[in-house]
Amino acid sequence: MESKKLNSYNHLTAKERDSISFPARHVLNKGLLMGEVLDFGCGFGKDVEVLKEEGIDIVGYDRHYFPSYPQKQFDTIICLYVLNVLMQEEQTRVLMEISQLLKPTGKAYFAVRRDITFEGFRTHKIHQKPTYQCNVILPFFSIFRNENCEIYEYKPFNIRLIDQLEDSCPFCNPSSDSILLAESATAFSIYDKFPVSNGHALIIPKRHVDNYFDLSFREQSACFFMLNYVKEIVQKKNDPDGFNIGINIGKSAGQTVDHVHIHLIPRYAGDVDNPIGGVREVIPEKKIYL
Asked: Nearest-CA neighbor of 156 among 235, 261, 76, 92?
């Protein structure tokens, strides 16, 4: 990811502290740290250390300091002061990873700084390296805010109340039985309810729009960024030999749900007699063109 190369010193913003951070103390005092807890982006791990002493069942992950990636899902995830030092693509990746690491009925808490006056790269006072910082606004429920900090509560898209104006749309109000593969601020992914192959997934913008070409550039970009991420998940789990990617736009093109969705269809050697033509088979007599 290009932004990781540009922002290669973001880990230098981690602070060595003698006590628990304010947002960690806040969620602890509010009784929000339920079940198995993950501190995602834990830095040097002081919050993990103190919370363990408080009896919380918690582990920490940090790409630089505690790089053993979690191999299971958690009831609660905290991500404190991480997003502010990441560029937008990196932020989106973190949101998607946390949505995948969270149990279907779990909750995550994101703390972001509210005292940033300068956005962009600056030279770190101690390390003398370029580090990035920005303000972050998330489309989740805010449980706390002051002049220095805001804390958001995140619940998976398919178990929280969605757009009441579009309550008949299966993508505005996905079933709680749907398996959420990934979620970002703008889009989410679930398995297709009527899959044509193992691992058939959908990438869906959250805004109710029927035509892909009516999405904003930001929404289109978010969907295809997520498509790449979901492809990684499906590849790892199902090990397909290839993929078809498709969007149905309009009834004449076969669209049956009036909410944009991108199909990611894994393909397997031998799943059809002759795969030549791929997506051209939407018009069968045009499939063969050699």
From this structure: 76
The answer to whether 169 and 211 have CB atoms below 8 angstroms apart is no
Among this protein's residues, is 200 annotated catalytic? Answer: no
Domain boundaries 164-286, corresponding CATH code: 3.30.428.10
- Domain extents for the chain? 2-155, 164-286
Fold (topology level) of 2-155: Rossmann fold (3.40.50)
- Residues in CB range of 233: below 8 A, 6 or more apart: 100, 181, 182, 201
Exposed / middle / buried, residue 15 (Cβ in 10 Å: 0-12, 13-18, 19+): exposed
| Active-site position among 26, 200, 261, 263 | 261
Note the pTM of the prediction, 2 decimals.
0.91
Q: How confident is the model at residue 160 (pLDDT cuts 50, 70, 90)?
A: low
Helix (H) or strand (E) holding 45, with range, is: none
